[in-house]
């Protein structure tokens, strides 16, 4: 398994790395990918949004999921979800474009990327392309690279347009239910609740702890009665508020157990549990296994791969 390092400042043959601060100032960086497999696999959260065309067989380990890529695919990643790439060939090839949310939202022409189905936690980050789509997507990345190297005064606007074309190509492949927009009061409060829940993650440090843990906590933060919140969430999603909170905590717990060396006590405290035993009982209730057993089994899967 390997991970991608900072992209080169020029063509892939150049070994001069781009300063991350420079990327923040410019807002974007596109580059061709052609890298050898390395011995390590650093599983971490990146600082930028990313759209990539992956043309080599690999497995993307994304949060607590693993997604196999056997044919050229379009991949989306955001700075809030950790991922790593495990190669099945000696080299990883394709194209990548890193960008900040500020770059995409310049002139307020774009909604928050975190609200896009492509970048949401639990969404589908990988899209397998047809032969026709491969040619189309490859052509867009080549246009982005060419424009990046040009001195055209409005190249930023043009690159944003190309990125939007890549995003829309994937959105066309999304299930239609991903885009249902509810306009009633229940939908509004549910949307606010889900957004507030997502803001609590990812957990970046064992010293951090969740400020909101119960449906009552969320209701107070949103300024509504807990019964109103529970009714709205159940009406819109079909699941209780507590189920959404539990699922999100379990998802983060799995990612931390699998991809960090934190002790179960550190994970428990960071996720808002007063005692490690409370966390263990909660984890067992929702997964039918203990945190230590999950960590051990996840390690075996990683070694076998």
Automatic annotation (TrEMBL):
Molecular function via GO: DNA-binding transcription factor activity; sequence-specific DNA binding
Keyword annotations of the record: DNA-binding, Transcription, Transcription regulation
SMART domains xref list: HTH_ARAC
Chain segments annotated as transmembrane: none
Keyword Cell membrane: no
Record-linked Pfam families: HTH_18
Superkingdom of origin organism: Bacteria
Boundaries of every HTH araC/xylS-type domain copy: 198-297
Name assigned to this protein: Helix-turn-helix domain-containing protein
Lineage: Bacteria, Pseudomonadati, Bacteroidota, Cytophagia, Cytophagales
């Amino acid at each position: 398994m390997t991970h991608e390092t900072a992209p080169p400042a020029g063509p892939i043959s150049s070994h001069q790395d781009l300063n991350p601060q420079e990327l923040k100032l410019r807002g974007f960086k596109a580059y061709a990918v052609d890298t050898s497999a390395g011995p390590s696999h650093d599983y971490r959260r990146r600082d930028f949004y990313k759209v990539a065309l992956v043309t080599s067989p690999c497995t993307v380990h994304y949060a607590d999921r693993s997604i196999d890529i056997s044919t050229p695919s379009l991949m989306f990643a955001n700075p809030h979800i950790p991922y790593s790439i495990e190669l099945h060939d000696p080299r990883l090839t394709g194209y990548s474009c890193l960008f900040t949310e500020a770059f995409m939202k310049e002139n307020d022409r774009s909604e928050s990327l975190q609200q896009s189905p492509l970048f949401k936690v639990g969404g589908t980050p990988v899209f397998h392309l047809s032969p026709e789509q491969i040619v189309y997507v490859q052509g867009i990345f080549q246009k982005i690279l060419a424009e990046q190297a040009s001195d055209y005064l409005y190249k930023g606007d043009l690159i944003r347009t190309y990125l939007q074309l890549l995003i829309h190509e994937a959105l066309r492949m999304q299930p239609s239910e991903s885009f249902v927009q509810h306009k009633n009061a229940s939908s509004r409060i549910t949307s606010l609740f889900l957004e507030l829940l997502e803001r609590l993650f990812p957990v970046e440090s064992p010293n951090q702890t969740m400020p909101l843990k119960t449906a009552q906590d969320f209701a107070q933060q949103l300024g509504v009665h807990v019964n109103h919140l529970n009714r709205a969430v159940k009406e819109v999603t079909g699941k209780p508020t507590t189920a959404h909170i539990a699922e999100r905590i379990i998802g983060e717990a799995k990612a931390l157990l699998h991809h960090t060396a934190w002790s179960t006590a550190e994970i428990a405290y960071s996720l808002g549990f007063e005692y490690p035993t409370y966390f263990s009982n909660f984890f067992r209730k929702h997964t039918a296994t203990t945190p230590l057993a999950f960590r051990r089994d996840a390690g075996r899967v990683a070694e076998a791969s």
